[in-house]
Amino acid sequence: MSSSGDHSPITCGKLLYEITRAQKRWRMAYRAIYFVRVMLSLPKHVNVIVSETNIYKNYTEALLSHPNYPSSTTSHHEISKTSNDIVVPVLDHNVLTEMVKEKNLVALRQLGGVGGIATSLGTDPENGIPENAQDVDRRRQVFGSNTYVKPPPKGLFYFVVDALKDTTILILLICAALSLGFGIKEHGGKEGWYEGGSIFIAVLLVIVGSALSNFRQETQFDKLSKISDNIKIDVIRGGRRQEISIFDIVVGDVVLLNIGDQIPADGLFLTGHSLLIDESSMTGESDHIEIDSSDHPFLFSGSKVADGCGKMLVTSVGMNTAWGEMMSSITRDTNERTPLQARLDKLTSSIGKVGLTVASLVLVVMLVRYFTGNTEDEKGNKEYIRGETDLDDVMNAVVRIVAAAVTIVVVAIPEGLPLAVTLTLAYSMKRMMADQAMVRKLSACETMGSATIICTDKTGTLTLNQMKVTKFVLGQEQIDEEDYSNSISTNVRELFYQGVGLNTTGSVYKPDPQSSNSQLEFSGSPTEKAILSWAVLNLRMDIEKLKHEYEILHVETFNSDKKRSGVMLKKKILDSVKVYVHWKGAAEMVLAMCSSYYESNGTTKSLDEEMKKKMGNIIEGMAASSLRCIAFAQCQVSEAEIEYIDDQDKTHRRLKEYDLTLLGIVGLKDPCRPGVKKAVEACKSAGVAIKMITGDNVFTAKAIAAECGILEAAMGNDVNEGEVIEGVEFRNYTHEDRMKKIDNIRVMARSSPFDKLLMVQCLKQRGHVVAVTGDGTNDAPALKEADIGLSMGIQGTEVAKESSDIVILDDNFTSVATVLRWGRCVYNNIQKFIQFQLTVNVAALVINFIAAVSAGEVPLTARPSDELMKRQPVGRTEPLITNIMWRNLLAQSCYQIAILLILQFNGESMFNISQKVNNTLIFNTFVLCQVFNEFNARSMEKKNVFKGIHKNKLFIVIIGFTLVLQVIMVEFLKKFADTTNLNWKQWLGCLATAAVTWPIGWCVKSIPVSDQPFLDYLRRVLLLKRITKIFHRTENSTSRLGIGCGKC
């Protein structure tokens, strides 16, 4: 041990490192105290004065190149000297991580506060870390990347085992094993394996097909989750605001936070205003946490910004965060059952019960026939003679009978349905991704096809969200662009600089004049960018000068309820007593707060009711030209006149909202997206109503709605009563009035998120299937309430995306219409498959049942089209199997049953052929009927089933492959399939018989069907029977009691 006089930092660190775990808290306290001492002694060690840029560079360089840079084994603090003798404290990252996780304010203060930690991490709170790829890479190597380790995805073997758990598969495997054993025993190994082996092969195909499909779905979900997790984050690096992937965040980054953002990593609060954080995803607490630099500076990855704005310093990323630890143990459930899949499971279960009942009857009948001596072998002898037949022969016969019964169950159950749905949904999800729609919930694929109403936003969805200031009104006059410098007085221009440059969430980056790209960069929302660029380029605003001259005292951030934002500020000079309050927001709302207005020469005039009306007309005129109107207003107060929300503590300032002076109004043009009108027309022709819900005023809303085709009247004039309303009007309706008028509403202006939620709830109560678009945090309740929530991928907040079912990646309404087409395509494809599959099952079940009872033996995806958008929406209660499907299905089944029964009972005598040839004819005709009926299944209503067939090459290939396989089965695999050769006449006869399904399909599609579901007729008949029985019982009981009419 060193002497007491030799206490170097290294020696102390080694001693501390050897201390037992029981003294961990004492060790942490020592580190904190020691670090504070180092920080306090830091100025004494700076011997060379260098420029600010060089200091910044050397701090980072010393921090990241130090040989003892903090790692998992470092447990003490050291001091590094650069070439300029600048001392840099090296902070133990483990201590920092635990301090943030435990919200340890005492440790934070002992470590020099947020500023001290920023210095130790080589971060400038204003300019961030250097914009240097090497610096970022070294930080990533030292502190880790912002990713977390996920559990390995389920492999193919998992899905194979899962498929083996199916009851039907297990029954088939047992039957296959029994069949294989008795077959080999009876016929030898060379030929005895055919029947059992073929069942094994069939089961293997089902298992492999199902497992591959589920495995592909799992892989696709994994890819989609990676895309959905790749959030874009705003950071400051090298003084420049830039957007990067959440995975590229490193320790030391300065991250900008706004309403709706997800916090990308653990960190500390630097600066901000009214920042409220939703930590419910981490703690389960629904109350929002107010963040400040003194009492609550800790920010956690995975939390959401509920209100306000701010900057944070990243202290931990990836697996070092609490969110990373939690997410690494969570696997995404991809076994979601969609409503359609659930309905198909129910349908399959019902058909299975029918099949089981029929199979049980067949089993009983065939066993009775066998044991009563009514069955004969191939030589014409009785198969069973009591007391004479060997036990082995009896067992073989029983197994054969049981196998026949099981075959009926297998034939009855359409096992391909669930697989077909999974394949269709997986294919649709993949194609929808290419069409700019990312499906987050599998059920949305099919539910969208049933949508009857789409409630859409305006900005960014129907419009391009590319704002530009095209009109500027000051007082009562419009100021032309070329007159900005001459027409506006200096004091008014200075107030505009304050109201635009300091009351904003946007930013302006001015690059180095010597760099190759010296153009100004504007960041923020489209509205903020448009106003900032207008002020900088047209009004000659210097935003850096503004920030140095003024101090911001309080900020009220913009949200959808207030529709305005405000700021309180004052000049930084010591003798300044003036405090400025600025408001910016919806023109008519800001106008209502004003009592005077500025003219261009700098004079102020009273804003009486008559003048307010004139100003209102100016706003209406601008709005009618599809301009978004933003007004600016201000007032000046003394420090003594500042209002507070809490009068006693005086900690929360309140901005003055009355007696303001109107500065001016700007009109921003946001053109409609190309193709949006066509997409709206396509939705309307498909029977889907479009409702536009926007925060803009009623005149702008009407103009845009007319331009997009939502309103029929030109420019929104002469609209029908009740088609255009404001949110407050809708909100104040009684429930009965809302339910009466809601179907007629086309546009709702000046709406709040609550109004949107209320509309969705009312529409659902009216029986509509509702799709809703949204991009803001406050849209989350409406997105969750809707049947299909559609969030915007570009402008949408993370809260909105997490609440939605589908993310529209390009924010375009045309993509919403495409999603509608895909939804209908999924539903239509499934219906076509059901029609085809049930035709096969019904025909096979009836044939096998009749043949077994009478003779004791058993013989036997498209892309969306424009036509889908011409149909009416399916809605919420429509049956899966429609009357059209019943019509087609029953007609084809009846034809096939009739033909196959004729061959079964009269084929041998009619064509003078052997029983084996007749059985082959039955098998061949049945298969070919299904092949030809596939053409009919291409369309449930079109008579011409060959239209466009040359475009579907996959369909032609499958039909060709099936025919070739059938020829091979009949002609070459005779022993395996138990068939015999057919001559060319018999082949032609089979083909001709099967081809009759085409004219039958053509004729049947000419028969009109009722809109009332087919099964409703059966329910009515059963209901009438019940009523009749009740009536008769009542009549009999009254007769017995002697209350008949004749005895009165």
Give the percentage of residues in beta strands: 15-25%
Q: What is the chains' assembly state?
A: single chain
Number of strand segments = 30
Mean pLDDT: 78
Would you tell me the structural class of the helices and strands?
alpha+beta
CATH homology superfamily name of the domain at 468-667: Calcium-transporting ATPase, cytoplasmic domain N
Q: What's the CATH architecture of the domain at 468-667?
A: 3-Layer(aba) Sandwich
For the report, how would you describe the main beta sheet?
9 strands, mixed
List segments where confidence is low: pLDDT < 50 over at least 5 consecutive residues.
1-22, 36-89, 1043-1048
Helicity level: 40-55%
Query: Total number of helical segments?
Result: 37
How does the overall form come out from the CA principal axes?
elongated
Rg over alpha carbons: 39 Å
**End-to-end distance:** 122 Å
CATH topology of the domain at 468-667: Calcium-transporting ATPase, cytoplasmic domain N
Protein name: Calcium-transporting ATPase
EC number: 7.2.2.10
GO molecular function, one term: metal ion binding
Organism: Parasponia andersonii
